[in-house]
Amino acid sequence: MGLSIGIVGLPNVGKSTLFNALTKAQNAEAANYPFCTIEPNKAIVPVPDVRLDKLAELVNPARIVNSTVDFVDIAGLVKGASKGEGLGNQFLSNIRETDAVLEVVRCFDNGDVVHVDGSVDPLRDIEVIETELILADVQALEKKIERLQKSLKGDKNLKIILDDAEALLKFMNDGNLALSFPEKDKESLKELFNELRLMTSKKIIYCANVDEEGLAEDNDYVKAVKKYGESKGADVVKISAKVEEELVGLEDKEREEFLESYGVKESGLEKIIKTGFHTLGLISYFTAGPKEVKAWTIHRGWKAPQAAGVIHTDFEKGFIRAEVIGYEDYIKYKSEAACKAAGVMRIEGKEYLVNDGDVMHFLFNV
Description:
By secondary structure, the protein is an alpha/beta fold. A hairpin with a 3-residue loop joins strand 8 (about 280-290) and strand 9 (about 290-300). Helix 4 (about 120-150) packs antiparallel against helix 5. The protein has helices at about 15-25, 50-60, 90-95, 120-150, 155-175, 185-195, 220-230, 240-245, 250-260, 270-280, 305-310, 315, 325-335, 335-340, and strands at about 5-10, 40-45, 65, 70-75, 100-105, 205-210, 235-240, 280-290, 290-300, 320-325, 345-350, 360-365.
């Protein structure tokens, strides 16, 4: 499994500049006018993980395989997008397939870069974005309710689903995200959410895009976004799309020095991915051998057989046991054989909860 993030925002907030920098490819035309992105931009980006690199230095494999993140960048939304304004909602279906939504809002003043609404107000931008997402979801939900009503014919199970769908529709028509619906964990609604892939049922990460001066210290715009995110229980990440663009092509040492000159240690990509993993409750474990050292993405709380299943379904079906070495132990003793000799390699069964950074080898029989 991988992590997929949909990037949304109003025109001219830095979405396409950010996408270009994150993917290190100028796939999305970044221009100083609305609607410069005219079709969805998708890219697969390797997850930077220093632990993977350190393991590779010890194992010296034929190849190194990072976990990946899928980024989807869509055209800028404006008021009325759900009703066809601007480029309308023709690209929103791409966001339905993602795991989380990254809402990019402008948190800097620059008279040379026009704002679609004439002034900078990140909280207003968030309201516009989320209103359009809600309205698009409401349309999808209304169509589903119509189908349910036609298929009802005394089916008690369908009646339960219909009642829940109508309650959800009323809740969303009041301007609420599906994610905050109090009864969203009911089985009938889980099925509905899975079928419709409601955009507002996804976890949201608020992305405050600042200029170079705003990286070291939070400006008032960023403070407002962080306060809002805290009130919603959502993660907030601060980046500078402009700085990210300038990082493209720099060697590691140059990159570190460049970031330090702005008083930061991590790139925007690293911040977004780390935040995405935290928001969705994801962790990584590793497999290490002469052929490859590889990172695998799983949900926190998964047991060993589930973790094995991301390699191949047969690994989960025929799971026997797992050989596990903690990352720190592997680095300390420098090889699998040395870890085994030191007694830090553990044999774990089906109930073992995988930890972030575990180095694992699975035994299975099908």
